[in-house]
Amino acid sequence: MKKRGLMLRIPDLLTLVNLMLGFTSIIYTINADYTMAATFILLSVIIDAFDGFFARMLSAESKIGMELDSMADLVSFGVAAGILAYTLYLKTTGGFIVCTLIPVCAAIRLARYNIVHQRSYFTGLPTPAVGGFIASLAYTQTRLENTHLMVIFAVLAYLMVSEIKYPRFTKTELKKRSPTFIMLAATAILPLIDRRLLIIPFTTYILIGVFTETGLIKKQAKRGAETNTKKEKKFAGD
């Protein structure tokens, strides 16, 4: 029984580590060490994935664990990411307003997630994707125009509270080896070549939801299927 009790606490301990990493990121941002601030947010993304994995593996999912996870995600991917975005890129009044939307929309997104049952997909862009994108942007060492950054961050905030469906890679989905998972897995290798490419897998995931919602992916798939059908008919006729 004691062993079982210890196992039940493992995911919650990882969640608290996630929160501490987010807090540490904020400290590094205050000290103007933006690379380290970004690194700790990215570490939070990894830990967040592991705490969910262990919770399911150990059948240790609980209400308190869910609430703790949301609080940790808000700190790491909402507050820490928002502060990094403002301090590093947008120290203007307009930038302040836009960057404030990041933790605000993250809070709404997480609160909705806690009360709405979701199985095979997420409703709205998951907060780790937002935090990961902002953190990886710091690695690119690219300076964009303030207007462009404000639009990007505002869109990210909107996507969190939108009704757009994003893939959730459950055990069942991974067994299916969906094209979406294969695409993301391929892009995830790129940072091993150059850490500045870390932004690519996050961008890919963000765009997958948008393209799927607008029907672009389905149209491309349908167009490809029609092309193959025409080729088959042509060969059959020959």
The tally of beta strands, per DSSP, is 2
Unreliable stretches: none
Shape: globular
Strand order within the widest beta sheet: 1-2
Cα-atom radius of gyration: 20 Å
Order of helices and strands: HHHHEHHEHHHH
From the structure above, extract its key features:
238 residues, 2 strands, single chain, mainly alpha, two-stranded antiparallel ribbon, Four Helix Bundle (Hemerythrin (Met), subunit A)
What is the element layout, followed by pairings?
Blueprint: H1 2-30, H2 34-57, H3 63-88, H4 93-115, E1 121-123, H5 127-140, H6 146-161, E2 165-167, H7 171-176, H8 179-188, H9 199-214, H10 216-237
Antiparallel strand pairs: 1-2
Helix pairs in contact: 1-2, 1-3, 2-3, 2-5, 3-4, 3-5, 4-6, 5-9, 8-9
Describe the structure.
It is a single chain. This protein is mainly alpha-helical and 238 residues long. The protein has a single domain, classed as CDP-alcohol phosphotransferase transmembrane (TM) domain (Four Helix Bundle (Hemerythrin (Met), subunit A)), CATH 1.20.120.1760. Helices cover 78% and strands 3% of the residues. The protein is built from ten helices and two strands. The protein has helices at residues 2-30, 34-57, 63-88, 93-115, 127-140, 146-161, 171-176, 179-188, 199-214, 216-237, and strands spanning 121-123, 165-167. The protein has a two-stranded antiparallel ribbon. Helix 4 (93-115) runs parallel beside helix 6 and helix 8 (179-188) packs antiparallel against helix 9 (199-214). The longest helix has 29 residues, at 2-30. The protein is globular, with a radius of gyration of 20 Å. The termini are far apart.
